[in-house]
Design goal:
The protein is of the alpha/beta class. It contains nine helices and seven strands, in the order E-H-E-H-E-H-E-H-H-E-H-H-E-H-H-E. A seven-stranded parallel sheet has the order 1-2-3-4-5-6-7, covered by helices on one side.
Amino acid sequence: GDRLAGTFVKTASHQSMEVLCGAGLDFVVIDAEHAPFSPDALDLCLLAARAQGVPALVRVPDTQASTFLQCLDMGATGLLVPHARTPEGVAEDLRKARYVGGSRGFSNSPRAGGYGKVGMADHIRRADDEVACIFQIEDAEAIEHIDALAALEGVAGYLIGRADLAVSLGCTDIHAEPVVQAVETVAQACRRHGKPLGIFV
């Protein structure tokens, strides 16, 4: 129930990440969807955030299982997944990020597993308990399914992307009435189901 504040990182620089992580933010989101993060740059930025003790999510460029796996193995605190549209699609994406009842490929040799120091059982338990999967609501189709989406177990929260939502609703202004109404609909659904909700400010 705490109110948290974070920022998106679009510069593939571990020095910038170190500066941001020392600024008192609650979390950072590395934007690998809209910024040019190579695997090496992503790895360094996640290491910088981890060294500062600041939770770092990765906004993934796609929902391929290999993309989820790579980000989580590098030690991302969680994933921000664009374009959540249906409960079935979100449930499938959740499975890709989970070991038990999911399809995440196991390895404790990367950073997330302490380079082999964390035993198999402990790594599986910690990973499944701690990984935060947050999904973006940015499509008209998601508004149609929002009550079911907000009720899904395993989703750490939702983030409203008003720009894409506006485009999906046929608007060119994030303050247009259909967008405002859609945001309120999402907020009410998340409130009903006790689901954390974020938005750009």
